[in-house]
Amino acid sequence: MKKGKYLFTSESVSEGHPDKVCDQISDAVLDACYREDPYSRVACETAVKDNNIFILGEITTRAKLDFNAIVRGVVRRIGYTPDCGFDPDNCNISVFIREQSPDISQGVSEGEGLHTEQGAGDQGIMFGYATNETPEFMPLPISLSHKLLIGLAELRRSGRLPYLRPDSKSQVTVEYEDGKPLRVDTVVISTQHKPNIPHSRIKEDMIEQLIRPTCGRWIDSSTKFYINPTGSFVIGGPVGDAGLTGRKIIVDTYGGHGSHGGGAFSGKDPTKVDRSAAYAARYIAKNIVAAGLADKCEVQLAYAIGVARPVSILTHCFGTNRIPEERIAVLVEKHFPVKPADILKEFDLRRPIFEKTASYGHFGREDPDFAWERTDKADLLRKEAGILKAAEHPGIEVPLDGR
């Protein structure tokens, strides 16, 4: 764990950001497949530029997909209108989809190929992370960055700030000391807006109606605010920049804290361990921290395509663990799902729940559909590790054996 004082920064992007538009469309296609066929195989990518949307990938499903309705519905829900240059009713939609390769399918389907168990949908490494610095067990910089943009969307949709448009970004810099957050040093908000809105009005509204209520006690008299630093942000969304699915993987996870295996989530059905195993790794890490076994925890899972069991499982607690990491590893092996079929069953992932994961982060959200956010194994871990609850022992939770 890093010692002394230092600054750490994380960013988030809104549902109207062109890359996030693509993530949401890709996951909306997945949800549409799952509504009719929960055993669909989906690998759906989206690209957007100006008023053009391209859907690409491999899908094997019994569902009847109306791509026009799916795509236009997402763009409309996000809040784009013709005056933004990105028109949900008149955008051009091109679809390039074929069925999944049978070479991949035989390794992923239970009872097919060389293995009788459902194997991983690809090789790769996935990470999960948790920290006790926030109630949701997320790093403070990414937690605040997401909350700022959720609040900004509420200000836009409620009509309180009618000049707002959907594309926006946030960035929060937190000052830490010895691994613990002290204060917010800097907040950056860049928000798309209608023409001819004075910058002074936008700045005042962002600070008083968004940043102060959201960041609360973390802000002090020395906190710096940068609002639309270029002075104007009228042209945005796909008109201002092209968008692609899977291009905001750090926004989707932990804001740069912990590690990342490189795989994106959106548009992938959960037989693909890029998604489901990342959810499982978060579930493991969060329960370890919630149990008081460590203040911070990172979990790595690694897979070979077509093979059910991970080729490796690693837990790392950055020196904050209260019992040996070897004991934590034994508990992980004993109590957590790590095979693809077990992960799907544990989280009930063959459901159309994925479009809402595709903006404002896949982790740290209070939503019953985000089953990987449960801490239902924390008491069991605490008991088996010999950790006293704080209520039973004043002060910090400690192991019964004193280690």
Q: Concise description?
A:
The protein has 403 residues and is an alpha+beta fold. The chain has helices at residues 18-36, 67-78, 102-108, 140-158, 199-215, 237-240, 249-252, 273-290, 325-335, 340-347, 378-385, and strands at residues 5-13, 41-49, 52-60, 92-98, 124-131, 164-177, 180-193, 224-227, 243-244, 296-303, 312-316.
Set down the secondary structure blueprint.
Layout: E1 5-13, H1 18-36, E2 41-49, E3 52-60, H2 67-78, E4 92-98, H3 102-108, E5 124-131, H4 140-158, E6 164-177, E7 180-193, H5 199-215, E8 224-227, H6 237-240, E9 243-244, H7 249-252, H8 273-290, E10 296-303, E11 312-316, H9 325-335, H10 340-347, H11 378-385
Parallel strand pairs: 3-4, 7-8
Antiparallel strand pairs: 1-6, 2-3, 2-9, 5-10, 6-7, 10-11
Helix pairs in contact: 1-2, 4-5
Describe it:
There is one protein chain. With 403 residues, the chain is α+β, with helices and mostly antiparallel strands. The chain has 11 helices and 11 strands. It has helices at residues 18-36, 67-78, 102-108, 140-158, 199-215, 237-240, 249-252, 273-290, 325-335, 340-347, 378-385, and strands spanning 5-13, 41-49, 52-60, 92-98, 124-131, 164-177, 180-193, 224-227, 243-244, 296-303, 312-316. Helix 1 packs across helix 2 and helix 4 (140-158) crosses helix 5 (199-215). The two termini are 18 Å apart.
Q: Main beta sheet, described? A: 4 strands, mixed
Number of helices: 11
What share of residues is helical?
A: 25-40%
Residue runs with pLDDT of under 50 for 5 or more positions: 111-115, 390-403
- Helix/strand order: EHEEHEHEHEEHEHEHHEEHHH
Average pLDDT rating? 92
Shape: flat
Structural class: alpha+beta
Order of strands, widest sheet: 1-6-7-8
End-to-end Cα distance: 18 Å
Query: Which band does the percent of strand residues land in?
Result: 15-25%
Q: Count the strands?
A: 11
Radius of gyration, in Å, reads: 22 Å
